[in-house]
Amino acid sequence: MGEHRNISNAVIKRLPRYYRHLGELIEMGTERISSGELSKRMNVTASQIRQDLNNFGGFGQQGYGYNVKFLYDEIGKILGLDREYQMVIIGAGNLGRAIANYTNFEKSGFVISGIFDINPECIGQSIRGVPVRNMTELETFASNNKIDIAAITVPKSAAVEVADRLVKLGVKAFWNFAHVDLNVPEDVIVESVHLSENLMRISYNLSKSEDERGRRHYGKEKAGKRI
Amino acid sequence: MGEHRNISNAVIKRLPRYYRHLGELIEMGTERISSGELSKRMNVTASQIRQDLNNFGGFGQQGYGYNVKFLYDEIGKILGLDREYQMVIIGAGNLGRAIANYTNFEKSGFVISGIFDINPECIGQSIRGVPVRNMTELETFASNNKIDIAAITVPKSAAVEVADRLVKLGVKAFWNFAHVDLNVPEDVIVESVHLSENLMRISYNLSKSEDERGRRHYGKEKAGKRI
What we know:
Two copies of one chain form a homodimer. By secondary structure, chain A is an alpha/beta fold.
């Protein structure tokens, strides 16, 4: 695996979207696609697509376009989707359940091997065949099972402590839904989903466009008065 | 409201994180804070903090630091959090329920006014006092209630059509959890949470660091053989 070298972060960030669109094309039975068609579909310029995909060398052929399946597989390899990851979910609330019930993750190689909670009402329940275990069993579980990724869907008051425990157990990647910064060593990967921050970006943009409409309206009124 | 002008997108992107940390400081009873202390807390350089917060002019005072509450309120205004937004949730599955149950959103001014689904088992249920309505009632509801934001938590096969319906009803902002691009007019805001793309960034980073460890190991072996 030498694909990782020399690909810029900007390109890497765009790969999941390519991967998704190529997957949809495969589902539709499309075998090959030109950069122009892909461009229309993805609402990105064709030159951007050629530039991005050229990073992997020789995927596209003049007059033929891209072999969808080949490109899909190659991008999958670069994204590390050619292997399996064992994921645990800490917190069996609605969010934890939503993730556990999302079968597509498993299809992409993210296997949910354990779900943990402290709530006696949840413990012992099963979500898609995976039992909800007591948090006290975490250490024992980790000594018998490899944990590649931990999804943290507990309230923020518990998240930091839970992450500390998991770091001690050797977990190297966190998918953090708690609205708090996890303090983990530098070699540990944290991918955070801060839902409140999403909402703040929406409110910022909504209030900005309202203000702009207000200013435009004010501008028109002024212009009207001047006549 | 003229705060929006001249603030770079990069700064705007960082504001929600400032807002969160300042909120935590208020909860802890902290009245003022120096850029140095805030820097340590947020793991950002103090000069970055001064630069960011200088955008709003005169929030910090030499030898006094920042007034936490004032800064919190000002950033809140810039983020449009000084008003209320009516949000509907389309899809009362686990993810929709998780969002509906998150009381913090409401505290920040995002009021959940309606929840919709097509599943007869959900319709009529109540989530935190908000009834789950039949999707067929969406148009009637929209004519009687302002909808500022729609959270889309339906499967991707339904998401595009649902968004089209909502755009026709005048909804100007979407919080999209479906793993698909919504085709909306340019003046409509879409904030997407693509959970699979999160996972792909994790798998990319995990496989990259595994490869790096592999190469380091290989390098050592080679060095060893050379001796």
